Amino acid sequence: MGSLAVVRDIRSPRSVDTPAAAADYQQDLLAEYVLARSAHGVTDATVRGDLAAVEEFLTWAGCWAWEVTSRHGDRFLAEAQRGKAVKTRQVKAARIAGFYRFLEIRYQGEIHALTRHVVASPIDAVNRPTNGGCACHRRWASWSGSSPAGATGSTRHASGAPPRATTRWPG
Rounded to whole angstroms, how far apart are CA atoms 103 and 65? Predict the structure, then answer.
């Protein structure tokens, strides 16, 4: 079996060594994301919302898209989005995760070759907002065998319903 080579778009920058080159590259990645979403048939309003959420997150993080970690996602959702409706946090988290899925699928190799960073979504199964808050306690309790501070320790919802069957944790 042969090895894989990084295929680079002819328009790709040869380096992102200067802030201007890095900013141009990040802007190109955002533009490609918009184009891909539009090609998929997503409405203009949804694409604008996706882009606004991603740009808000990247501005808040204060680093390039390829330098973002799950820690940035944790802090953004816990600090910058504090006090916002659960649905607002869920939608923003999904929009940010969608952009990073795009980067992982389309640009992982190129980004690594240019920056030596491996792109990974800052929104993951641990920090993705859920409906309410009880779900995280149920999942934690069923996964770890213990409860976080303030949780009841029960794997049942306060209403008595069992945890959702789709919840999967390593272990």
Answer: 9
What the block records as the tokens of 128 is: 């993705």
Phi and psi based region of residue 116 (left: phi greater than 0; alpha: psi -120 to 50; beta: remaining): left
pTM of the predicted structure, to 2 decimals: 0.69
User: pLDDT tens-digit profile of 9-61?
Assistant: 556 667 899 999 999 999 999 999 999 999 999 999 999 999 999 999 999 99
Query: According to the 3-state scheme, what is the secondary structure of 48-64?
Result: HHHHHHHHHHHHHHCCC
- CATH tag for 19-115 (out of 1.10.150, 1.10.3470, 3.40.50, 1.20.5): 1.10.150
77-to-64, 68, 73 alpha-carbon distances in Å: 18, 14, 6
